[in-house]
Design goal:
The complex is a heterodimer. By secondary structure, chain A is mainly α. Chain A contains 4 helices and no strands.
């Protein structure tokens, strides 16, 4: 895991405390029942704060899995 | 606190696996980050517990109050916003802002606020309620520029102000002072993006600030009980032993108003039941002369005891603490000398020491605010006004020496003990006693207002609230026993007695009355040593209450009767 992965994973772990850490990289709105609309907004707020980013309304529609979120952050921070 | 710190705290609370204490967050908006922050702040304040925050449905503030009233929560936080008064005052409405709808908004507001008032009263009968009035900027619908208040805005503010005043008078309701949230300007509180996206109207920093304020109000730190003050260059300007009592000053015309403001603050605290004492390096005669000035902003009698001598101030502070019979952690010491503050602090690390800033008015303003916070409490009770008189009386009894323990002396006091057996949830004094008494305390366990209400609602609860009065005056409600009647046994979960009531055989009278009132054959006690409850442990030893084979602290009716002492009290029982 690189540094971005770890930080995103920590945010996931705080928002989904019952999700085992090894399951986090596979997490998506489709696979995780606890990932409802409230959890989605909380998760993206947590990640936005962690990386000093602002997510637009369309980001909320698109960032629906751990890999998509990590890719998005790598692109925005230039740390791919 | 950042959002991620709050989320991590909430996660750690869950991992702790401790008992969950449920609270209800009532709002018309999606509670989102506010819920997280409140949970995190409560966890910091109640570190031995896990916290659960319940919430209701979006857009139904009144309905959510009703749900809170039906819930098992120990406390409620209600956060009102403009859209709860009328949806057209919120960003997610399309009801229009035309001039002609404003009278309709105002008349609807009256009805909604009246309904909310009734619902708040219903919740407050079950649990404490912290209420937060609208904090967000109004919609820009005034005809005036923003620097000029519009009639509509003033009409709404007036309705909210009047509503808050009414609910603030309901027992169990506490209002968050919105000016304390002013650290974040109004325009930096609203997150329009989040309001439109998720129905959550606050910026993250403002949600954290509000959660912190709510926590302080629902779970305030225990108030301090006594303030010890220096005299020279603190209570007044000048050295009284050098310039004389007529030359020390505290008035605007003498450019010493800072001392006058401090005196007025002390007078205010004394009127709220705070104990005041003097600790000064002075001749006693000089100190007395200064304190006898008729233009002092508080009475000389407000200070007890007055310690004026040339010894280390820590010695005088020790005398004062013994006279008051309270712990150092309940006391604030104010002096203009950092050296004296340090000397006292090294002897009594638990004392809150504050420097009197005689040359910096802005620091004085901060000191006065700090004193309000250190001594503030949700309500003033009758006992607060009796505290100083009863301590003087106790001192007189102590001066009588060993003879004060004799039956003859106690009989001469003409004491009356009242035992109130009624389970009255509106009486907050028993809970206050349980949560601030250390020395005569069965187990040191503190309980929240919600838990208290829950316990006395149990059908088998036994509660005695004990009041005392003698020829020196009333002490008010000074002891509480709370337990449950289980067959022929009363199991006592809580038993505390104020240190002001020591040496009057009140503890014997309490047990005697408990046996009589409940017809119990035995009393069992949830006893735990706390490191501070030696007076209770000594009493247990003196009457033979000890752990039996299964570790239960118990005394039978027969064993207690065998220890019988002369009880020099007239007893009054108050029943439904």
């Amino acid at each position: 895991m690189n540094r971005i992965d770890e930080r995103v994973t920590r945010c996931f772990s705080n928002v989904f405390p019952d999700l085992p850490e090894r399951e986090i990289p596979k997490a998506s709105t489709a696979s995780l029942a606890a990932w409802d609309s409230v959890a989605h907004v909380t998760l993206l707020s947590s990640i936005a704060e962690e990386f000093g980013l602002t997510f637009e309304l369309e980001d909320y529609e698109e960032l629906v899995s751990w890999p998509l979120i990590v890719d998005c952050i790598e692109n925005r921070t230039g740390n791919a | 606190m950042t959002l991620n710190q709050a989320l991590a705290l909430v996660k750690s609370g869950k991992e702790r696996g401790a008992e969950k204490k449920a609270h209800y967050l009532v709002s018309g908006f999606e509670p989102l980050h506010l819920k997280t922050f409140i949970q995190a702040h409560f966890l910091q304040r109640l570190p031995e517990n896990d916290i659960d925050i319940l919430n209701g449905l979006y857009g139904d503030f009144s309905g959510n109050l009703a749900l809170a009233a039906q819930s098992s929560a120990l406390g409620a936080v209600a956060v009102l916003e403009g859209s709860d008064i009328d949806p057209r005052l919120g960003l997610r409405s399309s009801g229009g802002w035309a001039e002609e709808i404003k009278p309709d908004i105002l008349s609807g507001a009256d009805q909604r606020l009246a309904r909310i008032e009734r619902s708040v009263a219903e919740v407050a009968r079950k649990m404490p309620v912290v209420f937060v009035a609208p904090c967000l900027p109004m919609l820009p619908l005034g005809n005036t520029i923003r620097s000029q208040s519009s009639v509509m805005e003033l009409e709404i503010e007036q309705r909210i102000g009047s509503f808050l005043l009414r609910i603030s008078r309901l027992p169990g309701v506490r209002i968050v002072d919105r000016s304390r949230l002013g650290r974040i300007p109004v325009e930096d509180r609203l997150d329009v993006r989040f309001e439109l996206l998720a129905g959550f109207p606050y910026t993250v920093p403002f949600a954290d600030l509000m959660a912190g304020a709510v926590t302080e109000v629902l779970y305030p730190c225990p108030p301090k009980k006594g303030l010890i003050t220096d005299l020279d260059d603190t209570l007044w300007a000048g050295i009284v032993g050098e310039i004389g009592a007529d030359k020390v000053s505290w008035q605007q015309e003498s450019h010493s108003q800072a001392h006058g403001l401090y005196q007025q603050m002390l007078g205010h605290l004394a009127s709220c039941g705070v104990l005041l004492a003097v600790c000064s390096k002075n001749e006693m005669a000089a100190a007395e002369a200064g304190l006898s000035r008729q233009d002092l902003f508080l009475k000389k009698e407000s200070f007890f005891p007055v310690c004026a001598n040339w010894g280390p101030k820590s010695l005088s502070v020790g005398i004062i603490l013994r006279t008051w019979n309270i712990g150092e952690e309940a006391v604030v010491f104010v002096d203009d000398s950092p050296m004296e503050l340090e000397e006292v602090k090294s002897a009594f690390p638990g004392i809150e020491c504050r420097e009197f800033p005689r040359k910096d008015p802005s620091k004085l303003w901060n000191l006065l605010g700090e004193l309000r916070d250190l001594f503030g409490k949700p309500v003033i009770m009758a006992e607060d006004g009796l505290r100083q008189t009863s301590i003087r009386a106790s001192a007189m009894i102590q001066e009588a020496g060993e003879s004060a323990e004799s039956s003859e002396f106690l009989l001469s006091l003409g004491a009356t003990v009242s035992l109130d057996w009624r389970l009255d949830p509106s009486d907050k004094r028993p809970l206050e006693l349980i949560n601030k008494t250390n020395q005569f305390n069965l187990n040191g366990r503190r309980i929240t207002e919600g838990e208290w209400q829950r316990r006395i609602d149990q059908p088998d609860s036994v509660l005695a609230v004990v009041s005392y009065a003698d020829r020196f005056g009333p002490l008010g409600k000074v002891a509480v026993v709370l337990g449950r009647k289980l067959g022929t046994t009363v199991r006592v979960a809580q038993w505390v007695m104020s240190c002001r009531a020591f040496s009057r055989r009140l503890e014997h009278q309490t047990l005697e009355s408990l046996f009589r009132e409940t017809s119990a054959e035995a009393l069992e006690f949830d006893f735990e040593p706390t490191g501070k409850n030696n007076p209770l442990q000594e009493f247990f030893r003196s009457v033979g209450i000890g752990a039996d084979a299964d570790g239960t602290y118990r005394i039978s009716r027969a064993d207690f009767a065998a220890q019988a002492m002369v009880l020099p009290h007239r007893v009054i029982d108050l029943r439904k």
